[in-house]
Amino acid sequence: MASRSSTRPRGRPRSRRIAGSAVTLALASSLLAACGGDGGKPELVWYINPDAGGQAAIAEDCSTDDYTITTQVLPQDASQQRIQLARRLAAKDPAIDLMSLDPPFTAEFADAGFLADVPQDAISQLEEQGTFQGAIEAATWEDELVVFPFWSNTQVLWYRKSFVEKAGIDMSQPVTWDQIIDVASENGGKIGVQANKYEGYVVWINALVESAGGTLLENAEQGVDADLTIAEEPGTVAAGIIEKLASSEAAPSDLSVSNEGTAGSTFGSDQGSFLVNWTYIWHNYDETAPEVAEDIGYTRYPQAVEGEDSRPPYGGIGIGVSAYSDDKDLALEAAACLVEPEQQGKNAEMTGNMPASTAGYEYPALAELYPEDLLALFQESVDASAPRTVTPYWSDVSSSIQGTWHPPAGVDSETPESSQAFIEEILKGGKLL
Fold it and tell me: Does residue 170 sit in helix, strand or coil?
């Protein structure tokens, strides 16, 4: 069901500054930090993604008389996060106790034996706090939950209320990609998407394919012999939407290099009309462009096929416990604390990365920061979301898609088939990326 904003609540989340400047020193000192040095209370080291404030605060909250949780910041780039953790875990480095994992890498780490088993009592806890289905799917490999869902982000369709009023489109009803492209083209608007040659572009492609009723691949547990399905009809629908936007008047001039930030800038400009982006957009303009902030409306992610519910993108973080930790049992206990509803809510308040459970959304501060119907839309969208295919070979699949679907202006009806053939060659070793 569509939602729209009327008034903006008081308050705003704390600044989302990137804490990447300390990465080099943090990594250099990680082995020393993990040792504890004095033989006293164990120190559990949690390698976190660079979202300022929230994770360090809850690490302090979840430290006990039995152990202290400290944090080390991973690189900003998700691929570099994967490389750094995978290299050290492959060497069975005991200095990693807990780690924040991007969903595309969960299956790879689980399949390699890097992750400790999630205990049944923790699984029961996650069920009781109403962990979203999308979060569970992203945290599962071979029918086993392998990480603790921590935060779950999703995309909605943001729109400029002044633009849709001028254009005369009814946003109280579901809208399709075809509709918003046509409306923006006919009324001088530009649509913000993520279409640079990076993971964010694959997120868009995956959401389009899933919204059209398909998947990128099936039977992922078969590894390199998984069934590739991107060339089926839903892939053709996805390619048609990208081709239509890229060739339309609604395409921004920087479409081929657009990311979350540039798309946000397009949306905040005089040509802003529609934008697909993550939950942080609600407060993105509060200080820099308050007139834009007051002009933001929102509804569910656009339909790829009219009348068929969309499958919005899923993003998030799961907390994995290293199989090689010297304090594995304590780390599992700590992980269960880190994903409790109060901790999810506190992290959302401080970073804008929303909880992975319905109970996390009950954290009181969130009602001060977001309208009730927007919080409901976030939860609806996460529950209906489409995580990227959980496969140990995701890095190869993603890079292959980026190589064959970029630039967006080159996408046409033949792209899905050529993409599928290329992915198969990469997985079977016939070609190198």
Answer: coil
